[in-house]
Amino acid sequence: MGALAHLAVNGTDGLVYSVGGWLIALVVVFVPFLLRLYRGGDAKLVMAIAAWLGPRGGVTAFVYGVVAGGIVGIVTAFLHRRALTEPAAERPDAAHAPMAIAFALGALAAIEWPLEAP
Hints:
The protein is an all-alpha fold. The protein has one domain (2-112). The chain has helices at 2-34, 40-79, 99-112.
């Protein structure tokens, strides 16, 4: 939808902008997804956000989302105290931080406070 919206509003330049954001997000989340740090839905959400916000906005949203995810992860760990004593990889019932919430907050923060290039 982000690519179509950018194409409709800005033509091929908008499409390139949107697809560029999507591709950068794909590269950024691919390795963490392979390492099972993020689930498939989280990775798709990051790529969708980047398709809407473009390359710089997508990376900014990801950075803010990772910070928010750290906070959400700490809260999740305290709610599931067992997570503090055993690594998640060793437990099939491991509590996972809801990263979709963190990435959504990161997208909102990126819109409100975009990072500027020096």
